[in-house]
Amino acid sequence: MNRHRLLSTLLAFAVVGLGEGASKRDSPLPVEDKDYWMKEMAEDIRRTQARQPNVKRAKNVLLFLGDGMGLPAIVATRIYKGQLQGRPGEETVLRFEEFPSTGLVKVC
């Protein structure tokens, strides 16, 4: 049963993560260059802080509920997607990770 659940989770990630096409970070990245990664993260922080919050009342809400999609499954999917594109994989960003608002809830 656990194997079936794992395969279902990976299939769901393949549909969501790979079906959308290539991510905006398609070029091979310099893995060992510390300054590159510092600049990359500083730019991500700047973009996030510059985003204006939407204070309007929501008309339609889409809720993606990934049952069984824990952090290890997300990381494995990210690496797998990157490797399919001929890159190491760890730096790959899945499409849903680029949504402006996301959350993670863990229920025991």
From TrEMBL:
EC number: 3.1.3.1
Protein's UniProt keywords contain Zinc: yes
Cofactor: Mg(2+); Zn(2+)
Signal peptide location: 1-21
Protein's UniProt name: alkaline phosphatase
InterPro entries referenced in this protein's UniProt entry, alphabetically: Alkaline_phosphatase, Alkaline_phosphatase_core_sf
Pfam families attached to this UniProt entry: Alk_phosphatase
Keywords noted in UniProt: Magnesium, Metal-binding, Phosphoprotein, Signal, Zinc
Transmembrane intervals: none
Record flagged with keyword Metal-binding: yes
SUPFAM superfamilies: Alkaline phosphatase-like
One example GO MF annotation: alkaline phosphatase activity
Cofactor comment text: Binds 1 Mg(2+) ion. Binds 2 Zn(2+) ions.
Binding site for Mg(2+): D67
Binding of Zn(2+), residues: D67
